[in-house]
Amino acid sequence: MKQLIFLILFMNYTLAYEFKLNKKDLSYINNSSRKPFILNRLAKYESMKTEIKNYELIKKLSYVNTFMNKTFSAQDISTQSSIDYWATPKEFLLQGHGDCEDYAIAKYFTLLEVGIPKEKLYFAVVDIKGEKASHMVLLYLEDKNSTPLVLDNLSFLVIPFTKRPKLIPRFAFNEIDSYKFTPEKFTEKVKINWGKEDKWEKLLLRVYNLNE
User: What percent of the chain clears pLDDT 70, i.e. is strictly above it?
Assistant: First the structure.
């Protein structure tokens, strides 16, 4: 079992990502009453990726963060049958709404397409001062000793974590490993207990293997 899990993780790490519509996606678009809006959003998405391909790093991060943040937010319970559903990038862009996890996921895979290495991008679960629910953001990390930059659906600014005092770090993860971290840097590797359902591995399976 451990060897199988390692193989899945290794395959995910080595696979390249490409946003590509399948027959199911095209059927969803053609049967939607919002078809013109979906097609317009997808056209702008593809145009944005082409435009920023050779941009400098911070400009590339900012464009992706801003583009995704223009999509309206929604609570999971209003869009899916199960609470805390992690949507794939295609689901997010076709439906045109999602929650914080969906924003972070869409930004992550978009940045992979425009040339950002997987090992520099991390999902981060954080708490927000004064709020009860946890929140997810995407981090860009140049190296393990550098201060993470934050891509957040609650802000159009891509700035260092140290300049977001209301965010309280819990843990960060990507396709390679997971860490505890402070606002200044990553500290130590950790193993995440996902409980009954590993939403992360389930999402990777749907994105890479099932093309959902």
Answer: 88
